[in-house]
């Protein structure tokens, strides 16, 4: 499935092409909505959707590590470690990954490769 992404990148003269699936976030059940008919599935939680977006962004590379760094001023930086096998294919896109993830989720990220 990665082949057609490369074809699109060639067609658009070297621009980065990223495919992200459409997902839905359901609100957390409050006290008023406690007697709902159905439970909220895990795949519809905010965390699950953000993790899935991250997986889609990094394709074809796999995420092998993730940590959250909280700075003294309270801001958070998510450090994501990608597998080394796909470094040549993905290395030039790391800034794009960070910017797209920031736009979609509002979270700051830093991508690196495993040692």
TrEMBL record:
Keywords: Ribonucleoprotein, Ribosomal protein. It holds the Pfam family Ribosomal_S7e. GO terms for molecular function: structural constituent of ribosome. One of its GO terms (biological process) is translation. GO terms for cellular component: 90S preribosome; cytosolic small ribosomal subunit; small-subunit processome. Belongs to the eukaryotic ribosomal protein eS7 family. PANTHER family: 40S RIBOSOMAL PROTEIN S7, SMALL RIBOSOMAL SUBUNIT PROTEIN ES7. This is 40S ribosomal protein S7. It comes from Hydra vulgaris (Hydra).
């Amino acid at each position: 499935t990665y082949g057609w992404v490369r074809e699109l990148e060639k067609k658009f003269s070297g621009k980065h092409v990223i495919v992200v699936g459409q997902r839905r976030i359901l609100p957390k059940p409050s006290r008023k909505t406690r007697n709902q008919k159905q439970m909220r599935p895990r795949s519809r939680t905010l965390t699950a959707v953000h993790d899935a977006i991250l997986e889609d962004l990094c394709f074809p590379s796999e995420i092998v590590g993730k940590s959250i760094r909280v700075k003294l001023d309270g801001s958070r930086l998510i450090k994501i470690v990608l597998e080394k096998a796909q470094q040549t294919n993905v290395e030039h896109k790391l800034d794009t990954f960070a910017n797209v993830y920031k736009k979609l989720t509002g979270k700051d990220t830093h991508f690196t490769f495993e040692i």
